[in-house]
Amino acid sequence: xxxxAFHLAVPVDDLARARAFYGGVLxxxxxxxxxxxxxxxxxxxxxxxxxxxxxxxxxxxxSTVDGRPVPVPHFGLVLDVxxxxxxxxxxxxxxxxxxxxxxxxxxxxxxxxxxxFLLDPAGNALEFKAFRDETRMFAR
Length: 140
Prior knowledge:
Layout: E1 7-12, H1 15-25, E2 30-33, E3 37-42, E4 45-51, E5 61-65, E6 68-72, E7 75-78, H2 81-93, E8 98-105, E9 113-119, E10 125-131
Parallel strand pairs: 1-4, 7-10
Antiparallel strand pairs: 2-3, 3-4, 5-6, 8-9, 9-10
């Protein structure tokens, strides 16, 4: 299936820390940049970190999913299971603190998935997940 690419811009309070996290920890290729923003290739999607000095996001709240409070808003990717576990190891090796550790959610149900939540250095919440069967992503 071919998907259109999305574009997402998020605020960060320090571009050097954003480069270290998105480029170093997550391993995303960097695209264009200026003194005020950096483009990242988020697996074919355009993620832009915009410098907003002094900005710290205030989470709108939490929503309970499968008995766990998840931060809202958040963004991320759906990966295959092997890529999910490789990223989880990469994040753990980098000393990343997880909001929700890599865990299996909805076990035995049609939308069974691995998920993990973390914050970038600016406090933006990210979720990475992997479905046992990605064709069941929207299964009820």
